[in-house]
């Protein structure tokens, strides 16, 4: 019999936390005023680096791709990428630099912020965008302020702010991706329509023909766009919301397992049990056991 969650050591729970990650660890965060003629020879970092041009401009080269950065440009260096920097004679350069990592965790940062260095659709994949006069600039400055202060509160605040920076960047990148804002807005609306349809038909499921009729898109395009925005295909999403609903019912409804299976669209309780354990790592009964402590008879 498996141990209940509240009896486990923290390390023992990691396998059950598939969609949760530890916060980023900041190695260095500072504002750098480059002296006249400053340059950074080619080097390779083992960690991530955000480099924000606060004032002036400089010439970067990352993995052979040139970037002539100006005020407001934000670059993302990934681990093990060769990069170098040269300032421009007679021009100032001030940057905000943050070096960070996620420990031993294989954090899907590229998926979060829409970064793919192998993406043939972008000839400048490391340029995250221009954030001059954008709230992200203030977040970066505040992060560096707290990082430079002593004390646990400031260190935790800077770590929290970095996660906020990455999420702001993700929102910006997801909103601005695509060739047309209007087209993207329309596409997003259709994806939400598809997702809501799946939500509302949790018990009965769906056929792809229904989603095609609903959106006017082909099956393959639906799968491609849905996975791009939600991180999974429509079929995977259906399984996920069914299991999440099952956990909710197990917690709140008092229904038997067979009744829960039926409520979320599974007529065979044994098949439902196998799917739940395969996806969640524990059985539904074990999951319920992790929610409550044993209470003495009164």
How would you describe what is shown here?
The chain is an alpha+beta fold. The chain has two domains: 10-176, Jelly Rolls, CATH 2.60.120.280; 181-298, Orthogonal Bundle (Arc Repressor Mutant, subunit A), CATH 1.10.10.60. The protein is built from ten helices and nine strands. The strands form two sheets. The chain has a five-stranded antiparallel β-sheet, covered by helices on one side. The longest helix has 25 residues, at 152-176. The chain is elongated and about 75 Å long. The two termini are 26 Å apart. Residues 177-184 have low confidence and may be disordered.
Biggest sheet strand line-up? 1-8-3-6-9
Quickly count the helices.
10
Number of domains: 2
* Main sheet overview: 5 strands, antiparallel
The CATH class of the largest domain? Mainly Beta
Structural class: alpha+beta
Using only C-alpha atoms, the radius of gyration works out to 24 Å
Coarse shape: elongated
**Proportion of residues in extended strands:** 15-25%
CATH arch. level architecture of the largest domain: Sandwich
CATH superfamily (homologous) name of the largest domain: Regulatory protein AraC
What is the average per-residue confidence, as pLDDT, rounded to a whole number? 83
End-to-end distance, in Å?
26 Å
Number of strands: 9
Estimated helix fraction: 40-55%
CATH domain topology of the largest domain: Jelly Rolls
Unreliable residue stretches: 177-184
Would you list the SSEs in sequence order as H and E?
EEEEEEEEHEHHHHHHHHH
Pfam family, one: AraC_binding
Domain HTH araC/xylS-type: 192-290
Keywords: DNA-binding, Transcription, Transcription regulation
InterPro entries: AraC-bd, Homeodomain-like_sf, HTH-like, HTH_AraC, HTH_AraC-typ_CS, RmlC-like_jellyroll
């Amino acid at each position: 019999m498996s141990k209940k969650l509240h009896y486990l050591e923290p390390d023992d729970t990691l396998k059950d936390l598939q969609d949760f990650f530890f916060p980023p660890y900041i190695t260095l965060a500072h504002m750098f005023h480059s002296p006249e003629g400053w340059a950074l020879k080619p080097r390779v970092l083992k960690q991530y680096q955000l480099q924000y041009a606060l004032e002036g401009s400089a010439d970067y080269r990352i993995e052979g791709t040139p970037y002539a950065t100006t005020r407001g440009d934000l670059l993302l260096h990934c681990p093990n990428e060769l990069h170098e920097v040269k300032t421009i004679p007679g021009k100032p350069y001030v940057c905000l630099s943050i070096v960070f990592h996620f420990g031993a965790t294989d954090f899907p940062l590229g998926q979060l912020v829409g970064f793919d260095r192998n993406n043939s659709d972008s000839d400048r994949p490391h340029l995250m965008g221009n954030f001059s006069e954008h709230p992200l600039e203030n977040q970066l400055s505040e992060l560096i302020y707290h990082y430079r202060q002593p004390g646990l509160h400031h260190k935790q605040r800077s770590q929290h702010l970095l996660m906020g920076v990455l999420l702001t960047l993700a929102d910006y990148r997801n909103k601005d991706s695509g060739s047309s804002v209007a087209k993207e807005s329309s596409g997003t609306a259709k994806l939400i329509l598809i997702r809501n349809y799946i939500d509302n038909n949790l018990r009965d499921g769906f056929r792809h023909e229904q989603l095609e009729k609903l959106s006017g898109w082909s099956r393959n395009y639906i799968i491609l766009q849905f996975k791009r925005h939600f991180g999974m295909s429509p079929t995977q999403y259906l399984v996920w919301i069914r299991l999440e609903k099952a956990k909710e019912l197990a917690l709140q409804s008092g229904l038997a397992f067979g009744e829960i299976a039926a409520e979320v669209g599974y007529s065979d309780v044994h098949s439902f049990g196998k799917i739940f354990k395969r996806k969640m790592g524990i059985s539904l009964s074990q999951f319920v056991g992790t929610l409550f402590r044993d209470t003495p008879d009164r």
